Automatic annotation (TrEMBL):
Pfam assignment, any one: nSTAND3
UniProt GO MF annotations: DNA binding; endonuclease activity
Cross-referenced InterPro entries: nSTAND3, P-loop_NTPase, Restrct_endonuc_IV_Mrr
Protein name in UniProt: Y4cD
Residue span, Restriction endonuclease type IV Mrr domain: 7-60
Domain of life: Bacteria
Gene Ontology biological process: DNA restriction-modification system
Region annotated Disordered, chain positions: 722-745
Domain Novel STAND NTPase: 172-329
Transmembrane domains' residue ranges: none
Organism: Acidisarcina polymorpha
Gene3D superfamilies (alphabetical): P-loop containing nucleotide triphosphate hydrolases (3.40.50.300)
Length: 777
């Protein structure tokens, strides 16, 4: 039996849960009323004279509950004179205390069983598991579950992350998007959650992941940096749920490193065939659309069936109101600030605003963001932020931050999505040194550490992975704001380029808002060319996570891949239309061409350069020479699987790089490769490896359109894997018979009248827990 203390529920949530439990046990229909001066009625039976009062006093003492009942409630019940009175409370009750409460309400409370304490409610949750499943806030905050998720990696190895998850769960409101995404996962085993910034993609993905982890015993695999983490943990026989947040990155697909688009699509194919896997990804909708245009694997993959697009239509009026209710109730705001949103129907203006966005609601109910906003101006300031969302960060950046903190944010905007704090410090120090020299000002001691403390938990977030401390933006909207800022501030971009420490900074600064070329960078072509030359051999700022069987984890830098950097320079030449970069790119292409025969490097990286050259309107002799050498090199490596990945990269967009006869040659070579793999199966001892290998060949054969010629070989490989290690029976699908939405009509005013009553009488029910890092305004 579960042992919930119900602390994560607001009074409104607690009342609705009690309503559902009583309806299920008593087989009667109850209508609910929000908290307030209601004459002692929270729930009322529609077909019998039964009234119910819900007292959510988690964390309080029994004497307090008894006093409130005797002084305030008994007279109300006597006035109502119902045939039956039921009390539900989140406090644990002994048999003697239940009898004592029944005596207070005699003769309306007929038996001790009409008094439901914490243990009784937990018993009913066991008897009616669908109600438990529909109440995320219960089981997600279970101490056992949270501990399990921490060690599984979902909450990133820190108690502080556990507290953030608990706070987020208190504010979570389940919408139809959850069920839609869950249905997609059950049918296709993969789901891409897309939508505009701040719409709730990450929260939905986390709730789906926890659903599988806690309700159906899946093991979580959170992909934080690159897709190679999957290959380290993807055991075919295990129940695994993979979660790749923001898998395309924030601009220019910065998380898709080294041909990852092909690996992701291939993995989705594997997941579709494996009933034990679920694969959840999130991305911004406009980036997904750009990726479909620019990445041929995603363009050719039919992702529509696996995509759940979140938009404001997924948030009904009741859902918007509930999100706002939860954020107000569980915030660390002062009572005066909370009540300011409940006066003059301000809550209606917020919930029905054309720019309503859960992220704005989160920001505007966080006390740390409102230190200079007095209660009398709070409602007006909230509405103004909805009218113009960019003002949230613009005002704080320009008016509230120190100059050092501004510089740190600009430095972070030039770095990859997640970076080491020590790397950010190097970038900050170089940037500030140049600024001080050009501006003629004197630097102050410990500026980086001061700026980091000023921003952490507000504009940025830091976290530990093993002994390594990482830093990223607190939420992506900060990065969005800074992208717009840099796009319009050429001097900031110039100083960041001239002081850059990492090659990746140049790539980031070339991208403007929504992945478009940066207007500022386009005017600074000479600065860009100088920095790319200077940093071409520099260390990488991109990271990947490592772990050991003993549970040790940490971060390490990606190895510098010079061919990838050549590809980046070639692409930046086109992106910025830069003659200066064109000269540098020519030199790099000539050097790279010499390596075709001397080095056995990743031929797919060579092919990516070739693809960029093929798409040029005008090619010179250096380009043509590179393409001829690339074709010759691919023909010599036709017996290798990686060669065929490169060939498909160059053919799937329908260009004329290969003649029909040449394409036929590569198809024949691939079929021979499959036959060789099947013949050498006896050398393999790992059934999972054979299955993965067979599925990879099936995927490539489908792209080559030669399945009829390779199916004999891949089928033989799968049969051998099954003989070595028989697959288990298919995992039963989770139940889908969800409880229906409440039949009674929604009344927003009634909901917020109840919230107002709760806030005004908070000293009677001190059951609201404020996060440790939130301070009342």
């Amino acid at each position: 039996m579960p042992d919930y203390d119900f602390r994560s529920l607001s009074p409104y949530d607690f009342q609705l849960m009690c309503r559902d439990l009583l309806q299920a046990e008593l087989r009667e229909t109850f209508e609910s009323f929000t908290s307030g001066p209601d004459g002692g009625v929270d729930l009322r039976c529609l077909d019998a004279d039964i009234v119910v009062q819900c007292k959510h006093y988690a964390g309080s003492r029994y004497e307090k509950l008894k006093s409130v009942l005797a002084k305030s409630e008994v007279s109300k019940v006597a006035a109502l004179s119902p045939e039956r009175y039921i009390l539900c409370t989140s406090l644990g009750l002994t048999p003697n205390r239940k009898s004592e409460i029944r005596g207070i309400f005699d003769p309306y409370c007929i038996t001790d069983e009409d008094v439901y304490g914490r243990d009784d409610l937990n018993r009913l949750l066991t008897a009616f598991p669908r109600i438990e499943e529909n109440n995320f806030k219960l089981w997600l905050t279970s101490e056992v579950v949270l501990r399990r998720l921490v060690f599984a990696g979902l909450l990133e190895y820190s108690e502080r992350a556990v507290e953030r998850a608990r706070a987020k769960n208190q504010r979570y409101v389940q919408t139809p998007a959850f069920r839609k995404a869950l249905d997609i996962l059950e049918e296709h085993h993969s789901c891409v959650i897309a939508g505009i910034p701040g719409i709730g993609k990450t929260t939905l993905a986390e709730m789906l992941m926890v659903h599988y982890v806690d309700r159906h015993d899946f093991q979580p695999v959170r992909i934080s940096f690159d897709f190679s983490q999957v290959t380290q943990s993807a055991r075919y026989q295990e129940k695994l749920v993979f979660y790749f947040d923001d898998f395309l990155g924030t601009t220019k697909f910065d998380k898709l490193l080294r041909n990852e688009d092909a690996r992701i699509i291939e993995f989705m194919e594997d997941a579709a065939r494996n009933p034990r896997w679920r694969f959840i990804m999130t991305t911004r909708e406009y980036i997904l659309n750009q990726a479909r245009l620019r990445l041929e694997r995603l363009a050719n993959a039919n992702l529509d069936a696996e995509t759940c697009v979140l938009d404001l239509d997924d948030y009904s009026e009741s859902a918007r109101a509930a999100i706002l209710y939860n954020h107000i109730f569980f915030s660390g705001l002062s009572r005066e600030h909370k009540l300011a949103l409940l006066k003059n129907w301000t809550y209606r203006r917020i919930a029905n605003h054309r720019n309503y966005n859960p992220r704005i609601v989160e920001h505007m109910t966080d006390p740390r963001n409102l230190r200079s906003v007095v209660a009398g101006e709070y409602a007006q300031d909230f509405i103004a932020s909805l009218d113009n969302p960019s003002r949230i960060w613009k005002h704080a950046f320009e008016e509230q931050l120190t100059e050092g903190a501004q510089y740190l944010l600009l430095a972070l905007a030039s770095m990859p999505t997640d970076c080491l704090v020590k790397d950010l410090e190097d970038v900050f120090e170089s940037f500030l040194k140049l600024r001080a020299k050009r501006g003629g000002f004197t630097r102050q001691p410990h500026e980086f550490s001061k700026a980091l403390r000023e921003l952490d938990g507000n504009f940025i977030s830091t976290s530990m992975v093993g002994d390594d401390r990482l830093v990223s933006f607190h939420n992506p909207s900060v990065g969005d704001f800074l992208a717009h800022h840099l796009d319009a501030n050429e001097k900031d971009v110039m100083d960041l380029l001239d002081s850059a420490v990492f090659f990746e900074q140049c790539e980031a600064l070339a991208d403007g808002p929504k992945g478009e070329p940066s207007k500022s960078a386009a005017k600074l072509k000479q600065n860009m060319e100088r920095s790319l030359r200077r940093l071409f051999q520099s260390s990488s700022a991109h990271l990947q996570q490592w772990s050991t069987d003993a549970g040790l984890v940490g971060m390490t830098r990606n190895e510098v891949n010079s061919i990838d950097r050549v590809s980046a320079v070639v692409q930046l030449t086109e992106q910025l239309d830069s003659p200066e970069l064109r000269t540098f790119a020519r030199q790099l292409l000539q050097q790279t061409e010499k390596h075709f025969e001397s080095l056995r490097l990743d031929v797919v990286a060579y092919a990516r350069i070739g693809e960029t050259l093929m798409n040029r309107k005008i090619r010179d002799e250096v380009d043509e020479s590179y393409l001829r050498s690339l074709k010759s090199h691919l023909e010599k490596r036709a017996s290798e699987m990686i060669c065929h990945q490169a060939v498909l990269l160059l053919t799937e967009r329908g260009n004329s790089f290969f003649s029909p006869d040449e394409v036929g040659f590569f198809k024949d070579s691939f079929v021979s490769f499959c036959e060789k793999e099947a013949d050498e199966i006896f050398l393999q001892t790992d059934a999972d490896h054979i299955r993965t290998q067979a599925h990879s060949l099936e995927f490539t054969a489908k792209r080559y359109e030669v399945e009829d010629r390779t199916s004999l070989f891949t089928t033989e490989m799968l049969k051998t894997a099954t003989l070595m290690d028989p697959e288990e029976e298919e995992t039963p699908e989770p139940e889908k018979d969800w409880d229906q939405e409440p039949s009674q009509s929604f009344d927003m005013d009634e909901m917020f009248r109840g919230l107002s009553y709760e806030i005004e009488n908070l000293d009677e029910a001190d059951d609201v827990s404020t996060p440790d890092d939130a301070q009342s305004v």
